[in-house]
Every structure is written in structure tokens, then in C-alpha cells.
From TrEMBL:
Keywords: Amino-acid transport, Signal, Transport. InterPro entries: BCAA_transport, Leu-bd, Peripla_BP_I. Residues 1-21 form the signal peptide. Transmembrane segments: none annotated. This is ABC transporter permease. The keyword Magnesium does not apply. Pfam families: Peripla_BP_6. GO terms for biological process: amino acid transport. The keyword 4Fe-4S does not apply. Gene3D superfamilies: 3.40.50.2300. Residues 23-363 form the Leucine-binding protein domain. Belongs to the leucine-binding protein family.
Amino acid sequence: MKTRLTVALTALCGWALPAAADIKIAHVYDKSGGLEAYARQSQIGLMMGLEYATGGTMEINGEKITVIEKDSQLKPDVGRAMLAEAFGDDEADLAVGGTGSGVALAMLPVAEEFEKILIVEPAVADTITGEAWNRYIFRTGRNSSQDAISNAVALGREGVKIVTFAQDYAFGRDGIAAFKEALADTKAELVAEEYAPTDTTDFTAYAERMFNALKDQDGEKRIFIIWAGANNPMSKLQAMDPGRYGIELATGGNILEALKAYKEFPGLEGSAYYYYEIPQNPVNQWFVKEHMARYNTPPDFFTAGGMSAGIAAVEAIKKAGSTETEALITAMEGMSFETPKGTMTFRPEDHQAMQEMYHFKIKVDPAVEWGIPELVRVIPAEEMKIPLRNTR
């Protein structure tokens, strides 16, 4: 690592170099913008992951870790510039980010240009480890296919008719494409698709089209929603009384703040990436206990993801014995590591972390301010046939 170079130069030149952080990790995330809540969780989780994986020292083999924070502002061009600044001016060894899929996609070519590792967390779009992927990209966050396949397992019963509703950008489009592909292997039927701009506040026209597509169908009828950030349409759609047509809403898990709206939907089914009470393992036990002690609230969806990214970075550097990119790639391809969700493994072909997901049903407890995703069953990583989508 850098320490060896420092010692060698000191011996040759007879003078000491200025003290500097030995290992620099850049965190490029959307500290401001519509995904600010997700980003804050990711930052807390990353720092807790680095702490946990280093035994509280924030050092690897005696070399200190410094985290350089950059705000990508939920703007792809800013994210691209911030990552270039981190790798170029700040000389970061590797980076973690971004929050939104559009920003993350803009950052991928920068990692390739600088030949530095970018651990993508928590951006979800399939294209990140698909068509836009390059060999410097690893992802601890789940991808759209993992969300979609697990939700298809939860909803894909015989006789179920489904209309999908999603945001009209990479996250929503990729998510629905993966859901459709996964649903085709079940006995459920996709009836129609609807997409809306991310800043939509009036969902009346979308609701009318979706209700009309389903109201005369036989069997169970579901509107499956993929939505991130503000303006989640679930409550507004429910207020339009889809139940008069026998239509129910369905969606995946979400952050605790968003789960407050789920109290309106007891029995709602879907698949979740994380809920703090579900995984039973030593990492999650430490995580929940420490997060409660420090923040007086349980860890959330993206806090768990940030922690997984921090652990992955430390374990990769330990395994590689270096921060050199090629050594890290060799170490990380096929690497398994323990996270709050249990074991994750970077698939060698596209560097996507294979991980379990959780089929849930919402339980309402008056003493809890959000709808509780009660575990129906764990969906193991090996049960989900996640497609390889990269072409490089």
C-alpha cells in the first residue's frame, strides 16, 4: 500500500513526507435533492460498515481510512464531475455511490476513465450492471431484477391480473422490464403498464386508465407500484377507491418513513430488500443495537445498504493486501462477505452482489407508527435466477 512507498521515499531522500491519510474512500451521493433521505441513510450505514469491518479502528493493516464526501445533488452531470474530482484532485483509492440511478449511470464511465473501483450503492437500475457496466463497477445494492423477481414470486399466483405503475426514468423503466420478464415465468398475467414523471402530484388520469384496464378482469387484481422518493402515489390511488372494482395495490418494501403509509394496507404483499427485524445474524444484531443506541431509531433500508458497501470495501482491501485497482478486482470477483442481510457474493461476470430477499405481508400494530413487513419467507439468492445483462 501507500505506506511502503512513503517509507521508501523517506529513506532515499532523507526527509519525511507530509502526513496524509493512507486510504481514501470517496462517497459521492445525493446529499441534496429528492433522494436526500435515502442518501443520509447510505452515509450513516457506510460509516458504520467501515467501523464494524475494522473493529472500530477505522484502519486497515495500520493504515487510516479517510472518507471524502461529495454531493451529487441528484444531477447526473454533477455526479460525474464530483467523482472525477474525487479520483483526480483528491486521489481517492476507490469510491462508493450514487443514490439515484441516473447519477450512478453518469458516474460509471468516470470509474473506467480513471481505472478506479466504484462500489454502486444504493442505485438500483439494471443497466448499471448491464449494458452500461464496466469492469471497475461492483454493486452491493440490489438491482431491479432482484426486486422484480422476488416481487414476482410474491405476487405471481394463478389467476392474478396485474397492471404496473412506475416512474418514467431508468429506475422505473428497468424495474418494470425486469418485473415483466420475471412474471412471465409465473402463472400471473400482466394486463397493462403505466409510467408517470417523477414530479407527478395528480394521479387521476393514470388511476382511471389502470382501473379501466383491470375492472372487468376475473380473479385477483393488483396494481404493482415501483416508486422512489417523494410523491409516492399509493395513498392517492387508494383514496380513489380501487376496491370498488376489487383492485388491490401491491409494492415492494421501503424506508420506515414510507412504511407509515403502508398502515392503510394491512395484508399488502410484496418483497423487501431489508427490514431490521427480519435478518437473524451477528452483523445485523450489532447493527440494530448500535443504530438504536446512537440514533434512537432502527436502521433502515439504505442504512443497511451503506453498511454492506463499507464492509465490502474493507474486506476487499484486506483480501487484496493493497488499494491497487487490479489487485482489488481480483480480490472482489467472487468474494463473499457478511452483511446485515447475511452473506453477499459478488458475481464474477457482472460484479452484482447476490443476496437474499424477503417476501412480506404487512401487519398493522397500533403501537408501531408504520406498517410492519412481517416475514412470509426468505427468498435465497440461489432461488432467484438473476439475468446477466452486461454486454462487455
